[in-house]
Amino acid sequence: MNILVFVESAEGKIKKTSLEAVAYAHGMGGKVAALALGTVDAADLAALGKFGAAKVLHAADARLNDGVIQAYSSVIVQAMQAENADVLVLANSSLGTPVAARVATKLGASIATNVTELPETAAGFVVKKSIYTGKAFSKIEMKNAKKVIAIKKNAAEVKEVGADVAPESFTPQLADADFAAKITATEKATGEILLPEANIVVSGGRGMKGPEHWGPIEELAKVLGAATGCSKPVSDIGWRPHHEHVGQTGVKVSPQLYIAVGISGAIQHLAGVNSSKCIVVINKDADAPFFKAADYGIVGDAFDVLPKLIEAVKAAK
Amino acid sequence: MKILVCISHVPDTTSKINFTDNNTKFDSNGVQFIIGPYDDYALARAIEIKEANAGTTVTVLNVGPADTEPTIRKALAIGADDAVRVNAEPSDSFFVAMQIAEHAKSKGYDLILMGRESIDFNGGVVHSIVGELLGIPSLSPVMKLELEGTKAKLAREIEGGKELLEVNLPFVAGCQEPIAEWKIPNMRGIMSARTKPLQVIEPMAVDSGVSLQKFELPPAKGAVKMISSDNVGELVSLLKNEAKVL
Ligand SMILES: Cc1cc2nc3c(=O)[nH]c(=O)nc-3n(C[C@H](O)[C@H](O)[C@H](O)COP(=O)(O)OP(=O)(O)OC[C@H]3O[C@@H](n4cnc5c(N)ncnc54)[C@H](O)[C@@H]3O)c2cc1C
Ligand SMILES: Nc1ncnc2c1ncn2[C@@H]1O[C@H](COP(=O)(O)O)[C@@H](O)[C@H]1O
To answer: What ipTM does this complex have?
Structure first.
């Protein structure tokens, strides 16, 4: 089985979620080639070998520096053909998922997104995917010869399994039509830890009372190396930016640790966090529904508990 | 201008999910169905565009069996002009996308709006497959969409930020907030929805690349461990030594 992995980068650095895609492909067995597009750090490219790629392809064309959905789809199909690949693996993301869909359509491939585990191949090729916004799973048989798999965060563990490989340059054919949708600007938060990719998330809800009280949330996030999130009403009223809104209609996170402060735990919020490994809830109301979904809980006032928690984390370091 | 809005008919966001028939069928017992929340944003934006541009028509389409019709009527009550139901169980994303593309290919829609994802299958792919099938751009998740003649300016959410784009009509967009405010039907809308045209068409045959084996529910959550607010240090040591997440 030949597997192509599309790896995404941001500011030249390969994304952790893409390393998970390489680890996933390596876990499937078979021959793994990784494809990176646009300007990417040479060291990051070579290191893909360490995480399981036997071959690294790099299309350095500067027109690919922005994630243009149609152009990316077309380049990936060309790489699949060049590598004689049966399977494409990539990470679910705002770029990966639309690209997966277009590639699968071009190739007549079976497609599965939100995949959470390695395929079972004893009878057919069966993947497990998250559905109903994390409230359930389905097991799907992918029947076509070609397959496109978009994995959810934490579907595979990134491990060093090999050594650096020298990247090979890949020169795709690009048509003007691939750039029909023109990206005129990108506004990207730099430097901060991105919510969808974070290992720890600290989220605040309406219980935080106002944007001027977000200091302790940000400080706890900082000492933990965490991203900050919020509930929907908090972003609706503009206390926090829209991209921090977690839940059914916002970002779905699956970190190792999710800390919810002053969030009641409405089912729509839980839907976005229930694949977290460990959930801590801090709420002044002992009957807040969130406690039922938590691993650890503290009943108390956020403004009393947070400073103590920040000190305790610092002390434990 | 002609706009097509594709809506899914999905369990209300507060629904508990259960399965029957040996975990092969969704248990709709006691479940209330709604227009997908993201699809509702798409519909709301379509109606805003219609209100601002005389002569614009909005068609809603759903791929689903007859029991989705109340959901389709709700979209008509919100302000769509007419509706199409493709009479089939929406078995998988590719199947649904093929039906939508088959309907749309000869209708000359200027804009095809959908939600960024359905909240049942969460594929996040139907819009992109339709775009590819029709050979036009597809963009998702779109959080802003402004028309300027035959061109549109969009903002697409990317991890931790956004991307601004320009694209010519026609194209497909998967929508999310804050593209528009959800609209609630008023009495007049509800009355007029009863008589708006709802055309039922039969599906085309599609060779689906996937088949469902079974559904599963996540393992039950263990009991929560409560820690006193006077002993926050204990939480940190539990996270470190018991949960091993620090
Ligand atoms: C279709 C639909 C989709 C939705 N999607 C989402 C979604 O994606 N994400 C989402 O979050 N919501 C979503 N919602 C909204 C959801 O139903 C809830 O209204 C929302 O999650 C509540 O936010 P909250 O917990 O911050 O606020 P509240 O429900 O007001 O809860 C505030 C909590 O803070 C606690 N509190 C107050 N003061 C303090 C204090 N000093 N210290 C500690 N605790 C304190 C209170 O006890 C309470 O539990 C959606 C709703 C609908 C209808
Ligand atoms: N059965 C359906 N009928 C019409 N439109 C649908 C259907 N299922 C999904 N869609 C549209 O496609 C979008 C993406 O769905 P999905 O790929 O399933 O996440 C949804 O937000 C809807 O706008």
So the answer is: 0.92
Interfacial B residues in 53-92 facing A (CB < 8 Å):
none
pLDDT of A193 > 90? The answer is no
Query: Residue A243 and residue B157: Cβ atoms within 8 Å?
Result: yes
**pLDDT > 90: percent of chain B:** 92
pTM, 2 dp = 0.92
Percent of chain B at pLDDT exceeding 70: 100
Among chain B residues, the shortest Cα distance to A228 is held by: B160
- B178 preceded by cis ω (within 30°)? yes
User: Taking a C-beta distance cutoff of 8 angstroms, is the pair A68, A39 a contact?
Assistant: no
Cα B96–B99–B105 angle (5° rounding)? 135
Q: Does A189 touch chain B (CB under 8 A)?
A: yes
For residues B138 and B173, the answer to whether their CB atoms sit within 8 Å is yes
Residue nearest to atom 8 of ligand 1 (CA): A247
Q: For residues A35 and A87, give the distance between their C-alpha atoms in angstroms, rounded to a whole number.
A: 13
Kindly state if the Cβ of B125 falls inside 6 Å of ligand 2: yes
Q: What is the mean pLDDT of residues B203-222?
A: 92
- Going by CA atoms, what residue is nearest to atom 10 of ligand 2? B8
Q: Name the pLDDT band for B20 (thresholds 50, 70, 90).
A: very high
Each residue's pLDDT tens digit, B55-89: 999 999 999 999 999 999 999 999 999 999 999 99
Helix residue spans in chain A (DSSP H): 16-28, 42-47, 69-83, 96-107, 215-224, 232-236, 267-270, 302-316
Which of these CATH numbers, 3.30.420.10, 3.40.50.1220, 3.40.50.300, 3.90.1300.10, describes A195-316?
Answer: 3.40.50.1220
Q: Do B13 and A271 touch (CB under 8 A)?
A: yes
Q: What are the chain A neighbours of B127 within 8 Å (beta carbons)? A: 98, 101
Q: Is B31 on the interface with A (CB under 8 A)?
A: no
Distance CA A305, CA B234 (A): 13
* A2-179 is a CATH 3.40.50.620 domain: yes
CATH of the domain at B82: 3.40.50.620
Answer yes or no: is the C-beta of B62 below 6 A from any ligand 2 atom: yes
Q: Where in chain A is the domain with CATH 3.40.50.1220?
A: 195-316
Cβ A16 vs Cβ A149: under 8 Å:
no
Q: What does the alpha-carbon distance between residue A225 and residue A173 come to, in Å, rounded to a whole number? A: 41
B37 touches ligand 2 (CB under 6 Å): no
Give the closest-approach CA distance of A129 to chain B in angstroms. 9
Average pLDDT over residues B16-39: 94
Ligand nearest the Cα atom of residue B34: 1
Q: Which pair of tokens denotes residue B39? A: 């699809």
The number of distinct structural domains making up chain B is 1
Quick: pLDDT tens for A118-172.
999 988 999 999 999 888 999 999 999 999 999 998 899 999 999 999 999 999 9
